[in-house]
Structures are given as structure tokens and as C-alpha cells.
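wait is this the right file?? whatever heres the structure
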């Protein structure tokens, strides 16, 4: 959506007041000045018009920017939407093409050994979700199917305590990054504590509901889309060379010493560059990439369909690769809110992996289906 701004000058406000009333703003109070032209007709007093405009400028503008503004300046030109139980999901067309997958020269020595073998990949066209799957969407799936996630069946999921990833009992998809339940107004954020198995089950359900073959992206599809597809400008991250523009991630964890016992140190939750405690953010708040895809870097990792093999790039097929035939772990991509600013995981070439039943507060997923 295009950002809407309201701007009104003080000169214009004074003009409307027509020398009958002026407004003096002192210490956040509004005073009415005496006028010999004042009428008893309440609805025609010009100061009311002025007051309404002041409210519009100083009160409604921030609210409108929050509600109506997406910070993205590049809107997806090819997208399709579908609605399930009143929730709309947008899928963005990624036109097929050829690209060099893996660590290209621009990334220098910032790549791991599994990313070093750059190779040519040719992909067919596909649609990919503009956003990660949100809590409110996954909630519909659970309500309709009664599905039990791996976190529910096994009774726990991992959360980050700023020292280590710890197993937290009774945490599942209903909970956020710190293990506490999502509030009603927070369900527009990516669902987490989701295993690869859970994400695949959601895809099957949505396919049956819509008649489209929804699935997780292949690793090659994910990287091509994150780079910007045929519109790629060659960024380090999905949409920028600066992670601050496109990604949510942590900068530091704060240490607080006990005044009474200086040897006792408390570690607080991660903080971002604005001094706020890091949490999973609502989708679409940062800039998108060249295709209009949000949060491909940071916020939450995203499951891919492929099995992981550290040497796969050495023998991958060129046309629509789907990964190894078997393995122990599945691919995750994109980095997360718990990733540090200089962590390579945020980069579009970075490869991660986890077991199919693994779940934590930093992994979600994004949908894909093949274009006709």
C-alpha cells in the first residue's frame, strides 16, 4: 500500500479560523480567545473546523500511517489472493529464470563451505507467499482439523534465554518467542514452534481447501525469490545491503548485575537497534525485496522442502532442483529475530538445517505453489 500522509500548515489553520478564533497551544492545552463575532450557533463556529483539523494533523496522522502504511515502496505487480474463512493470503508470481545459486564473488569470504560452490540453476515459474504464514491462519487449520503439532505431542519447544536454546514445557504454536500465549491482536505475526512436519500438514490442508497444490518452497526457489528473481539487484539481504532496512534481528543481550550481590548477573532478552526488546514482529513492517516479498531475511527462519546435504551443490541438477533424495535434516533459510546483525544467517545465500520434528521460537514457514 502507498503511504498516506496528511500535512496542514499553521498558516492554513489560521486562514480557516478567519480572525474569529485563534488557537494557542501551550502545555498541551487549547485556549479559546475572546471574539465579538462569536455566535451561539454551535455548528457554525469556525474554531470547530480548526479544532478538527488540528486533531487530524496531530492525532489521526500517526494512526493512519500505522494502519494504512506499508513501508515498502515496491508493490508486487503479479499477485493472486485467496480467502479462507475471511482471511486473505497473497501469493506473488515469481517468473522463472536462470541464476547463480550459492556464494557469488560479492559475498567474498562471508560464506560457509556448504555455500561455496556457486552453480547455475534454471527454475520454472511459481507463486510464493508475500508473507510468512501467520498465527491467525494456522489457527484456522487447527480449528478445522484438530491437528496436533509436534510441540503438542512431545510437550515442549525451544526458546532463547539469551544464553542458550532451552527446552520449554507446554509451549506450542499458540505461544510467542518467550513462550507466553499470543494475544488476540498479535495474531498477524508469523506462527512459530512449528516443525517441518507441521508445515507440510498445513500445506496439505490448504491444498484440499483451495484445489491448488500448496507446498513448501524448494531451497532453490527460496533463494531465487529472496534474491529478487529476474528483478534482482544483487543485494546481500532480501531487498537491501543493509539488514536494518529489511530484517528484524537482535543486536545484543543486556546484562544486569544484582546490586546486593555483584557476582550475580541477570541476562535480559535481546535488544534491537532502537533499544526495544526483540520479539517476533508483525509481518510486512520492513521494506520488501524487489518482488514485493516481506521478511525473507530476519523475523523467523522458513522451512524449505529439501533434505540437507552439505555437498549437494556439487551434484545438483540444473533444472528445478528438489534437493537430495534422503537425509536427516531439512533446510531452513532466512535468519530470525534471534540472529545477530553480523550473523551470516540473514544473507540470501545462507543455508541452515534442522530435523523434521524440530521446533523453536525462531522457525516458521512460507507457502509456494507452481505456476500453471
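ok assuming it is, sequence goes like this
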Amino acid at each position: 500500500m502507498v503511504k498516506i500522509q496528511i500535512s496542514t500548515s499553521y498558516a492554513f489553520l489560521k486562514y480557516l479560523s478567519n480572525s474569529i478564533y485563534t488557537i494557542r497551544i501551550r502545555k498541551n492545552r487549547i485556549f479559546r480567545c475572546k471574539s465579538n463575532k462569536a455566535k451561539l450557533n454551535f455548528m457554525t463556529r469556525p474554531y470547530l473546523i480548526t479544532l478538527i483539523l488540528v486533531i487530524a494533523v496531530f492525532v489521526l496522522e500517526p494512526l493512519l500511517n500505522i494502519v494504512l502504511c506499508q513501508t515498502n515502496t515496491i508493490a508486487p505487480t503479479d499477485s493472486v489472493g485467496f480467502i479462507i474463512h475471511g482471511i486473505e493470503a497473497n501469493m506473488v508470481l515469481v517468473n522463472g529464470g536462470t541464476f547463480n545459486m550459492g556464494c557469488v564473488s560479492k559475498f567474498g569470504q562471508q560464506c560457509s563451505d556448504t555455500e561455496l560452490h556457486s552453480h547455475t540453476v534454471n527454475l520454472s515459474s511459481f507463486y510464493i507467499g508475500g508473507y510468512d504464514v501467520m498465527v491467525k491462519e494456522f489457527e484456522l487449520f487447527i480449528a478445522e482439523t484438530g491437528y496436533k503439532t509436534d510441540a503438542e505431542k512431545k510437550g515442549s519447544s525451544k526458546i532463547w534465554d539469551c544464553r542458550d536454546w532451552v527446552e520449554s514445557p507446554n509451549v506450542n504454536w499458540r505461544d510467542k518467542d518467550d513462550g507466553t500465549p499470543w494475544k488476540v491482536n498479535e495474531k498477524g505475526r508469523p506462527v512459530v514452534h512449528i516443525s517441518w512436519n507441521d508445515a507440510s500438514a498445513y500445506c496439505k490442508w490448504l491444498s484440499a481447501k483451495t484445489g491448488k497444490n500448496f507446498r513448501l518452497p524448494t531451497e532453490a526457489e527460496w533463494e531465487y525469490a529472496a534474491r529478487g528473481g529476474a528483478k534482482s539487484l544483487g543485494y546481500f539481504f532480501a531487498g537491501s545491503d543493509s539488514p536494518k532496512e529489511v530484517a528484524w534481528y537482535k543486536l545484543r543481550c543486556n546484562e544486569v548485575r544484582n546490586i546486593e550481590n555483584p557476582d550475580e548477573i541477570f541476562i535480559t532478552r535481546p535488544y534491537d537497534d532502537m533499544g526495544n526488546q526483540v520479539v517476533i514482529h508483525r509481518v510486512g513492517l520492513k521494506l520488501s525485496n524487489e518482488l514485493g516479498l516481506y521478511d525473507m531475511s530476519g523475523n523467523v527462519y522458513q522451512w524449505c522442502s529439501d533434505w540437507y546435504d552439505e555437498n549437494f551443490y556439487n551434484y545438483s541438477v540444473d533444472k528445478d532442483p528438489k534437493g537430495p533424495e534422503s537425509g536427516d535434516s531439512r533446510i531452513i533459510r532466512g535468519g530470525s529475530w534471534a540472529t545477530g546483525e553480523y550473523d551470516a544467517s540473514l544473507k540470501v545465500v545462507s543455508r541452515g538445517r534442522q530435523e523434521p520434528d524440530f521446533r523453536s521460537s525462531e522457525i516458521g514457514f512460507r507457502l509456494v505453489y507452481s505456476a500453471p
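The chain has two domains: 10-68, 79-370. so i think its the right one actually
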